Amino acid sequence: MSIHYRAIVLVLALVQVCLADDEVVPQSLFEQGLSENWGFFSGKKDATLADTWNLKDVDGQRILICTGEPYGYLRTKKVYRNFRMRMKWRFPKDQNGNSGVLVYTNGEDRIWPQSIQIQLHQPEAGSAFPSGGAKSDNELRNVPMLSKPVNHWNDCVITSQDGRVTVIVNDQELGQVTGCEPNQGFIALQSEGSEIHFTDLVIEPLSEQPMVEEPEEKSAEEGSPRP
């Protein structure tokens, strides 16, 4: 291979890396107004977005405040398959506060839609299981109590990779839910009876992992050396 040809290959490889970096841009979904990135569903007829969800700037921090009533959810306008979502949440008063994150949300808007639900319920934050007709190979149940006291921010990282969901709460990985069906959809935040605050919500798209084929086993004749 000539030096000139090698140089061309190297340049092309660098261009591909740069393009890949440009495509994977974490997106903050609270920088603009809610209507820019989110759709809204309420279980109460004629309820408005502002009845339940409001963005406010508090001490320089952009915070999404959910009143908890009526029941319903915000959901992204974009469909996600492979992603890493980081966010912080807190319940300002309720020691038994309840809410959750719905990933792979599909089908009709209802209470509750087809999805994989990651619990933010104060005593069992990080539990994960299928809801509304979704399916998975397993569930995350009986998780340790990881939530901080009320009015303290909690950290959550949810990673989705080809139907496999990994959950981390306050720097502790709780495990994975695998074989999720569906394995792509909207991401939703629940209004479920308790006032809850969200901040620093960022979604980073991830590329699909290539399938790795196992090498075929050679027969004894194919693998034996010739005399």
What is the tally of beta strands? 14
CATH C-level label: Mainly Beta
Can you say what the CATH homologous superfamily is? Exo-inulinase, domain 1
Rg measurement, Å: 22 Å
CATH architecture: Sandwich
Please state roughly what percent of the residues sit in beta strands, choosing from under 5%, 5-15%, 15-25%, 25-35%, 35-45% or over 45%.
35-45%
Sequence stretches where pLDDT stays below 50 over 5 or more residues: 4-22, 218-227
For the residues shown, what is the average pLDDT?
A: 87
Helical run tally: 4
Look up the CATH topology: Jelly Rolls
- What overall form do the CA principal axes indicate? globular
**Helix proportion:** 10-25%
Q: What characterizes the major β-sheet? A: 8 strands, antiparallel
What sequence of helices (H) and strands (E) makes up the elements? HEHEHEEEEEEEEEEEEH
Number of domains: 1
Q: How widely separated are the two ends?
A: 35 Å
Overview of the structural elements:
The protein is mainly β. The protein has a single domain (24-208), classed as Sandwich (Jelly Rolls). The protein is 15% helix and 37% strand. It contains four helices and 14 strands. The chain has helices spanning 3-23, 34-37, 49-52, 220-223; strands spanning 27-28, 38-42, 53-58, 61-66, 72-76, 83-90, 100-106, 114-119, 128-131, 154-161, 164-169, 172-177, 186-191, 196-205. Strands 1, 3, 4, 6, 10, 11, 12 and 14 form an eight-stranded antiparallel sheet that branches. The longest helix has 21 residues, at 3-23. The chain is globular, with a radius of gyration of 22 Å. The chain starts with a helix and ends with a helix. Mean pLDDT is 87; it is low at 4-22 and 218-227.
